[in-house]
Amino acid sequence: MKLLQTFAVTILALFLAAMPPAAHAQSNSAQDYPNKPVRILLGFPPGQATDVLARAVAVELTKNLGQQFFVDNRPGAAGIIATEMAIKAEPDGYTLLATSSGPLAVNPALYTKLPYNVSRDLAMVSGLGIVPYAVVVNTKSPIKDIGGLIEAAKANPGKLNYGSGGSGVTNHLATESFKIAAGINMQHVPYKGGPAAVSDLIGGQIDVMFETLAGTISLIRDNRLRPIAVSSIARTGVLPDVPTISESGVSGFSAVPWVAMAAPSKVPRAIIEKLNSEINKILNSAEIRTRFQSLGTEPMVMSPDQLTEYLKAETTKWAVAVKASGAKVD
Description:
Elements: H1 2-27, H2 29-32, E1 38-42, H3 49-65, E2 69-73, H4 80-88, E3 95-100, H5 101-110, H6 118-121, E4 122-130, E5 133-138, H7 146-155, E6 161-164, H8 170-182, E7 187-190, H9 194-203, E8 208-212, H10 213-221, E9 225-230, E10 258-264, H11 269-284, H12 286-294, E11 298-299, H13 304-325
Parallel strand pairs: 1-2, 1-3, 6-7, 6-8
Antiparallel strand pairs: 3-10, 4-10, 4-11, 5-8, 5-9
Helix pairs in contact: 3-11, 5-13, 8-13
């Protein structure tokens, strides 16, 4: 019996002796992170704004942290496929999600059923970029500014046509938000993607459109489209002379898509904070800021908590726009 007791005590001592190093290893998980490649899931095709921004940041993270950060495009279902993959991944920081306002803030109101709950299943890591809309018209249009657009719409209720990339996409919802704020009525013309709508705007088949600066800046510079305002709360570096909608008479108005980095909800907070710190350093660098602004994008520097609160406010705002638009997806 004494021999068994001695053996048990020895085993217990060995077990207790092993605990401090394990606890120490766990506490240093962020210090050691990353020690292998990190996958960034992305729910859109290569070349779109979310993809471009995520790849730019991934290159810098690879340089700064010594492990490869690589983008894995999984497009389809308005970003739902990649989001679902991310929430099912091991919450160890080696699978991240580069996503946008659509999957995070719009889809919860737009879809009657989703395979994820943003607040429950995802942890916000860092903002990447704000992608303002330019309110653009044909260069031959008599509309020169937001005041002129509102005046024309009120004089001809329901007769001005605005284009979008499709029912329920963010530029459709942003225009519906503008209609409510300005107290006007315009007719929605949905297209299968933004480029087709922009083409018809240039051709004069529609009157006005909210479209990202990233998608219109070259056409603006070539004098094929006229910007009458931007949809952000502040003017943009790429078009500093173009006023915001807010300063053009619709006070406080802002409706912008944005891009952010998220992770499975149970990723350790220390890893989230390390990634946030590194990404914010990248976004604050002169090189990245200049590159982003040349694409019509403003760096989005926020802490995880600030981003979480911003997401809550955006979800509420876009829900109002979805309700006004009548758009629903099953």
